């Protein structure tokens, strides 16, 4: 994950990230197994958002 902030010391790999100007980039690495990827986002004052992506082998 990345937010474009050059001064951020947050790790690229993880399960949460602070946004910069409300934006964040997510890069997903495949494991080679089929299944479902669930990607969610939440922020104070906003509704939780979620998308599901089906992964095929």
TrEMBL record:
Stretches assigned to coiled coil: none
Domain (Glycoside hydrolase family) ranges: 1-50
Record has Repressor as a keyword: no
Protein name: Glycoside hydrolase family 2 domain-containing protein
Source organism (scientific name): Paenibacillus enshidis
Disordered, as annotated region: 1-20
Keywords, alphabetical: Glycosidase, Hydrolase
Family per record: Belongs to the glycosyl hydrolase 2 family.
């Amino acid at each position: 994950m990345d937010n474009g902030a050059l001064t951020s010391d947050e790790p690229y790999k993880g399960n949460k990230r602070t946004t910069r100007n409300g934006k964040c980039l997510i890069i997903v690495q495949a494991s080679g197994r089929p299944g479902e990827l669930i990607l969610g986002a939440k922020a104070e004052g906003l509704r939780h958002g979620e998308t599901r992506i089906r992964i095929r082998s």
